[in-house]
Amino acid sequence: MCYSLVQPTPVRDAQLLAWNAALAQQLGFDALAPEVSCLQVLVGNAVAPGMRPYAARYGGHQFGNWAGQLGDGRAITLGELRLPDGSVRELQLKGAGQTPYSRFADGRAVLRSSLREYLCSEAMHALGVPTTRALSLLGTGEGVVRDMFYDGRPESEPGAIVCRVAPSFVRFGNFEIHAALQEHDPLRRLLEWVIRHHFPQFAPGAADVADSRRYADWFREVCERTAVMVAHWMRVGFVHGVMNTDNMSVLGLTIDYGPYGWLEGYEPGWTPNTTDASGRRYCYGNQPQIALWNLARLASALMPLVEDKAALQDGLEHYRATFAAQHQRLFAAKLGLPSLDRPEDEALLADLLRLLQVAETDMTLFFRALGNLDGRAAVALASYSPDALDAQQAAQWDAWFARYAQRAAEEGEAPEVRRERMNAHNPIYVPRNYLAQQAIDAATQGDLDPLHALLRVLERPYTEQAGCEAFAAKRPEWARHKPGCSALSCSS
Ligand code: AMP
Ligand code: MG
To answer: Where does a domain end: 367, 395, 423?
Structure first.
């Protein structure tokens, strides 16, 4: 009731497009050159001894509505590896063919979406954001038909498969499906399995946890991890784009990279997902609230197992408090301050974010520049419409910089200390939407160099790298409305 055994569907060809040597080494693979037999497994043409592939069953709330059973329609878990430190990593192919949960879809994934998943999950890891990882990206040598703009013009695109890696891919939706269908025994067994394997601190008899509290305490931990994850999303300007409950990990990892995007001009209402353009449910500024809503759906799913319903409510409160504290801590660091806990600090940050929005200021460039440049120079460097600043706005900026300088001076820290703190929290390089699209366009033509150059620079996102200026530039104007660079559909 929790999963179905299923074999990957073989493909015509296995063409290695990207290989994560560092992760491979951690997993105990021959890091530099995967053998042919390994590639055959990673593209779904073979199953290694000991693997027992399966697709997981889950449901989910999509765009606020219960969508019923979904499940891994194109993701197939090959198995788990136990690492020398005793921890476990699940290897999962995305796009490896149909499963019992594919419904009417083909079980495949196109190169552009698989490349985006590989690129962004590794960028997030290097940025210090909790995430699933990517081990390999393989072309399948087969075409996959997609109607990219949902406008009745389907085309054949190259297919590709990512091998994703995480301790587990269990989602809120894995619990929701059992609760919705009143499958209480599988619901309990799934939770016990997740606890035993991934949250041993809440296992039966674990020190400090009363048996009656184990489930509620586990839920509280999920709330905490989710809060930390979303606070990091806000810090780096990441917009997930499809925060349905089937895309929320109980481990607090960013999962399912689809029509995600990165803020360029700071705009809380921005969503990269064209399907979400009218409602903007999943826009940047809504993400903290939506995560809470999703956690409330998980709490509902746990209701049959938990006597003390108020304890679940406490978990949600814990989310609010943790998110607020983390957000404050991370944005203090972005400003180079040890904390933002003075009465006037809330307005200091809120006023800055409002000014950034008015001046259509690149979030990444601005915060990085703030540590090194005079106030107005940072705005000029990062704004997409610097000439549009009128005299009143310029005066508001000057007033804000004066307050900020005063606030920083009151800490009595050396400027280098402040700058170091800022540089550790304000990346120079993020996988800007148009950079990803350029890598996709080249890879589609058979040129993988742009992808590999981008992956290389994103390995050290906080470190200025010689010759990499183009990766830290403002988005060019041509990319403002270009598909793939500013707006993405769910077609993948
Ligand atoms: P997503 O919006 O990508 O998280 O997917 C939502 C649901 O649709 C999940 O159950 C996916 O497994 C399923 N799905 C998406 N694309 C495909 C596909 N090409 N083939 C089969 N199932 C798919
Ligand atoms: Mg999904």
So the answer is: 423
Q: What is the pLDDT of residues 79-132, one digit of tens each?
A: 999 998 899 999 999 999 999 999 999 999 999 999 999 999 999 999 999 999
Quick: pLDDT tens for 456-470.
999 999 999 999 999
- Mark which of 423, 448, 479 sits at the end of a domain: 423
Name the residue at shortest CA distance from atom 7 of ligand 1: 70
| Catalytic entry in 30, 151, 217, 246 | 246
From 286, 241, 260, 236, select the one nearest 129 (Cα to Cα): 236
pLDDT at 359: 87
pLDDT of residue 372: 82
192: its two tokens: 């016990």
Is 75 inside any structural domain?
yes
Q: pTM value?
A: 0.97
Q: Is residue 441 among the annotated active site residues? A: no
Q: Is 71 in the pocket of ligand 1 (CB under 6 A)?
A: yes
Tell me the CA–centroid distance for residue 118 and ligand 1, in Å: 17
Q: Is 9 inside a domain boundary?
A: yes
Domain limits at 416?
337-423
Please indicate whether residue 100, judged by its CB atom, sits closer than 6 Å to ligand 1: no
Does any domain span residue 45? yes
The Cα 264–Cα 409 span in angstroms is 30
Q: Measure Cα distances from 388 to 370, 380, 407 in Å.
A: 20, 11, 28
